[in-house]
Every structure is written in structure tokens, then in C-alpha cells.
Amino acid sequence: MRHLYLHIPFCAGKCFYCGFYSVERGPADRIDYAALLCREYDGLAPRLGRPRLETIYTGGGTPGLLGAPGFRRLAGELRARGLLEGIAEWTVELNPASSGEDLLAELRAVGVNRISLGAQSFDAATLARLGRWHDADDIARAVARVRQAGFDHVGLDLIAGLPGVTDALWRETLARAVDTGSEHLSVYGLGVEPGTALHAQVAGGQQLPDADAQLDALALAEQLLTAQGFERYEISNYARPGRACRHNLAVWRGADYLGLGPAAASRIGRRRWTNRPDLDAWLAAVRQGEPPPRASEDLWTDEEDAVERLVFALRLNGGIDPADLARRVPALAGRARDWEARLARLASRGITERPPGAASHWRLTARGREVADAVIADLL
Ligand code: SF4
């Protein structure tokens, strides 16, 4: 296990579209949480041996709400367990509204070397409709502060296909995102998650752009960003050459990862589990030295494990080699031949192709990326 995810489940409010687990708590509670997060690791440590981590990804929620004292405490706990030794990439997600100079200086000091900023849009009216706490200029100012603090790897998240965003506004958002000089841009399609304010608005008659309009927005992003020198290395992710997110790449390539905190998911060997999204239940358990309650926990067969680890790499530009499946689990040779035949059939419809220089691999074409979930579900 070389990849660690830390979930920070705090937000200052709820963005209208957001289905992630987060709650509102005061500063003292947030620092307490930072101090306790590694206790969940302690319960698992005997089974993990002595992991040599390569990457840490700190997401949320709004990790910036831990503040400089919270990150100092969190880093101290990680260091005390040897989990910061040899780390190649430590990402922290920040909101433009919670990325002050003190926090950034502390993040640099403890070894964070990659910042991912939730921008979502550069249009003021759109940001207000989303219930964000920042405006477009705050994003540019946040990137400037991050650079000033000495970070040379910055990413922005954007949402495509938002209501009220014209073609011209979307072009402007993409251009302003590129102008920030960020090395990494993530472009997600808008989803309507149950339980969100957006879900209620849609149920009340709010119109959203249709699927074609969303695909057009995603296609425009590909066209404009690749023209600017970004590589679309994963369906939703673009990076300057050599600046992909190592943590997420490892997960898509099928590596083990451990997630700590309420709602965090883990894949270790054939085990998969997701913690229950309940901060109080999580706190009560770790204070007792107990495992936190799980929303799901499964022990997969060798076959299920091998299939899942391989198939999601189809989201990556490098694609997959069906023969890998047979190499990992010889009993799956028949399944590998079936994948080969299916992917070849999809190639005749313009959905898959051989990547240049990789005659045994298949990857999705631009058209195939639009139906990636359906292709992966078919292979699964
Ligand atoms: S989008 Fe991010 S900041 Fe907004 S509520 Fe969700 S986790 Fe919090």
C-alpha cells in the first residue's frame, strides 16, 4: 500500500450541486479531527506492515478549514508514524476562499507539494448560482498566493455543462483557467446528486443543459485545452506533459490505497471498504480504538479483484491490455479473449482504438470517452 487518502469532512456551507459528505464544525473540533485522523491508521497498521508511501491526497470537504494549526498537527501525526518518509507527491485540495498565506506557508513547511483548487467557473453569476463562496478574481488571486508560497504544481477543477453558461462564457472560463498558468485542469460534467439543492431545484422545474450540450462543452474543453498544450491523460483530467496527478493515476492503474476518515474508501488486496459517512460515529469509534463503522465491506474473489483493477485504466489515455488479465489470473484467459473481441468490435464503431506504439492495448477514442461508463460497465 503506497497511496493514502485523507478525507477532511468539513465545509463552511453546502454548494448547491455537491453530494460529497461534509459537515459544519468549529475550529477546535476541526483541529481535534486532524489530531485523531491517524488513529484509524493505527488500527490497521498491524495488517499493513510498514508501508512506504509514495503519495498522499487530502480531499474533502474543504481541507483548508483545518487551517495552519490543523495541518501542523496532522503532519506531526503522520510523521510520528513514518508516513511522510520518501513521499513523492502530497496533494491538498483548497478552496480559493480558504487558501490564506499562513496556511500555504504551513503546507509548504510540512511537505505538501501539490495544490488543487476548486475553481468550478470563472463567471461570477454562475459561481453565485452554485452557492460558492468566491468570485472569479478570488481564483486568480488564490493561484498567485499559491505560487508566491513556492508551489510549482497547481491544479484547478472546473464544471462543464452548467445551466446558464453559454458557449462564449465556457470559452472564457477555459481561457482564464489556462491564463492562471496551472499545470493541471480537471473538467467534470455536472451531475445531479440526490439530496442536493440542485436536485431539489431540478425537481421543481429548473432546466439543465441536455446531454448533447454537456458533451459539446466537454468536447470544447478538449479542443481548447489540447490546443494549449495540455494532454487529456484521463477522461476528466488534463495536464501539462509530466504533470499528471500521481495519486489518481496510481488508483486508476489499480494500485492499493487506504482512505482515512468518514466516507473514505479503501482497496487493500482483495478487500474493499467504505467508511460510513458519519463524523460523530467515526470519532466515537477511533476514540475507543475501534474500527470506524463501515457503509460497505467486501472480500472479493481473485477474479473480481483482477477485473476491477484493470478495467478502470480504460479511463486513461494509455488504455488497457486485455492480455494483462490472463497474466494476472490465468483462469481469466477466456474473459481476456472476450474483452479483446468486444474492444475490437467497438473499434469498428469508432469507440476504441490502438494507442500509437502499443499494439496489444486498447484505449477509448474521443467518441468513446463520451460513453466510457457504458463501455466499462459492459466489460465488467
Ligand atoms: S463542492 Fe467542495 S466546498 Fe462545496 S460543499 Fe462540496 S466539498 Fe464542500
Structure description:
With 380 residues, the protein is α/β, with parallel strands linked by helices. It folds into two domains: 3-251, Alpha-Beta Barrel (TIM Barrel), CATH 3.20.20.70; 302-380, Orthogonal Bundle (Arc Repressor Mutant, subunit A). The protein is 43% helix and 18% strand. The protein is built from 15 helices and 14 strands. The protein has helices at residues 27-48, 67-80, 101-110, 124-130, 136-148, 167-179, 197-203, 211-227, 246-252, 279-287, 302-311, 322-328, 333-348, 366-370, 372-379, and strands at residues 3-8, 55-60, 89-94, 114-120, 154-160, 184-189, 231-234, 237-239, 258-260, 265-268, 271-275, 294-299, 352-353, 363-364. A nine-stranded mixed β-sheet has the order 7-8-6-5-4-3-2-1-9, with helices on both faces. Strands 10-11-12 form a three-stranded antiparallel β-sheet, with no helix packed on it. A hairpin with a 2-residue loop joins strand 10 (265-268) and strand 11. Helix 1 packs parallel to helix 2 (67-80), helix 6 (167-179) packs parallel to helix 8 (211-227) and helix 12 (322-328) runs antiparallel to helix 13. The protein is globular. 40% of the residues are buried. The structure holds iron/sulfur cluster. The site of iron/sulfur cluster has 11 residues, from loops. Iron/sulfur cluster is lined by residues 11, 14-15, 18, 20, 22, 60-62, 95, 118.
